[in-house]
């Protein structure tokens, strides 16, 4: 089937290899958060009818895709990795335009998709199962990985290509077909990723894109009886609703949700390194990562020195349009996100935290047409304050002080989330204890809380998720189901557990 290329800024849904408008004919706009008058694209506002069409196409494609040998499926991923490498600069620019983060970071986002493509292409020649002895004579036993079927995916705006790649690429290599709903703030990067897959030879219907809102598209995907597995990255609130709906249909459901990630700075830390890490962890991606450093726990002995250095450096960060040279921090993605940051600033001040820098939306001509919020730091934060417990998802950082290592661990673990954590220390004993005792899915020693690599498990504990992992071989565990196979070559009836001794 010929695959039509979407050449204009009017994007359609991708269903069964064809670009089609939403049944409703309605659309929504994707605008540049640094420069609101810049219209990036127009995308379909889809609904249940479009979801049904996409699921039917994915179900049909599954019949043949599951039978394509995994190493052949992997070759398509490998080619897509090459295509993404060639288009990296263009796709990074598109992403900065739609999402806001600086070009250096959007290059990294595309790179994460490239890394995932090559890593998962390798899985096409592994995807190991197990062979194991049977308890009976002349009988062979093994377990093999089977695809799960049609996978529904709902992705966020903060990593608009990397996160779709974490879901689509392992799903595809395992033999599944997919229906993906990109975030409404950043759909273009999903289209770019899928375009690379199509250009690499992905057959029609293996990946289908349906754009639109969570209520009109996301939930109908989750609830559709022919969708057999769900993967969501989003807020804990949405995760709870999606998880409950998936449970009602007995569907495996991978939830990657919020974080309140702590960086512990011990009194023996390399302070310059810790300040550098704190700036990157807290204000990289304008704080809009689920792995963002949002609490820094500082040993009281070095608190003053560390705070002074950090605040001074934060004030000097260059905020602006991420496409411009020298800009270090881009805008927030939307008006709503800026309002959330402003709301938390108010909450923190009301609770008695001390505003050390930032705390407001940036004014002036350069910022007038975008969603710019100043890098914000609060001192004197207590573990019980909302600003120390709730995810802000913006450039708002809390500083807390502690007396000793045990105290730091207790504060770090005393939150509802458990995604990522960091400790800066030169004491190897403390480092190893932190690795063991911090209750998160990811721990960094002498590095900030962001920057996970794609071949290791990604995910967390507590309200960060429901136990699944993306990245690494954990992704295969989600996108395959085990089938145990017994081959009896004795030519007689052998009864397991009954014919025990000969
Ligand atoms: C996210 O914020 O949802 O580890 C993902 C990191 C990135 C991925 C973040 N590689 O910070």
What is the strand and helix layout of this fold?
Layout (H helix, E strand, L loop, with lengths): L12 E3 L2 E3 L6 E6 L2 E10 L3 H18 L4 H17 L1 H12 L3 H21 L6 E4 L5 E9 L2 E5 L7 H12 L3 E5 L5 H13 L7 E3 L4 H10 L5 E5 L2 H13 L4 E4 L4 E5 L5 H13 L9 E7 L3 H14 L18 H17 L2 E4 L18 E4 L16 E7 L2 H9 L3 E2 L1 E5 L3 H10 L4 E4 L15 E2 L11 H6 E9 L14
Parallel strand pairs: 7-8, 7-10, 8-9, 10-11, 12-13, 12-18, 13-16, 15-16, 18-19
Antiparallel strand pairs: 1-2, 3-4, 5-6, 6-21, 14-15, 17-20
Average of pLDDT: 97
CATH topology annotation of the largest domain = Aldehyde Dehydrogenase, Chain A, domain 1
For the largest beta-sheet, the strand count, sense and barrel status come to: 7 strands, mixed
How many β-strand runs?
A: 21
Q: For the record, what CATH class of the largest domain applies? A: Alpha Beta
Provide the β-strand percentage band. Answer: 15-25%
Quickly count the helices: 14
Unreliable stretches: 1-8
Number of domains in the coordinates?
Answer: 2
Written account of the structure:
With 502 residues, the protein is of the alpha/beta class. It has 2 domains: 18-257 and 465-484, 3-Layer(aba) Sandwich (Aldehyde Dehydrogenase, Chain A, domain 1), CATH 3.40.605.10; 261-445, 3-Layer(aba) Sandwich (Aldehyde Dehydrogenase, Chain A, domain 2), CATH 3.40.309.10. Helix content is 37%, strand content 21%. The protein contains 14 helices and 21 strands. The strands form 6 sheets. The protein has a 7-stranded mixed β-sheet with strand order 14-15-16-13-12-18-19, with helices on both faces. A 5-stranded parallel β-sheet has the order 9-8-7-10-11, sandwiched between helices. β3 (27-32) and β4 form a beta hairpin. α4 (103-123) packs parallel to α5. The protein is globular. It starts with 12 loop residues before the first strand and ends in a 14-residue tail after the last strand. The model is unreliable at 1-8 (pLDDT under 50). The protein binds 2-aminohexanedioic acid (UN1). Residues 112, 158-159, 233, 289-291, 450-452 line the site of 2-aminohexanedioic acid. The site of 2-aminohexanedioic acid has 10 residues, from loops.
